Amino acid sequence: MPRMSDAPARWSQATVHPDMWADPDDDPRDSEGAGPDGEFATLQGFLTDYRLTLRMKCEGLDAEQLARRSAPPSTMSLLGLVRHLAEVERDWRNWIGDGARLPKLYGERDADFDAVVAEPAAVDAAYADLEREQAATDAALAAHPDLGARVGKDGIAVRALLVHRIEEYARHCGHADLLRERIDGRVGQ
Question: Whole-prediction pTM value?
Answer without folding.
Answer: 0.86
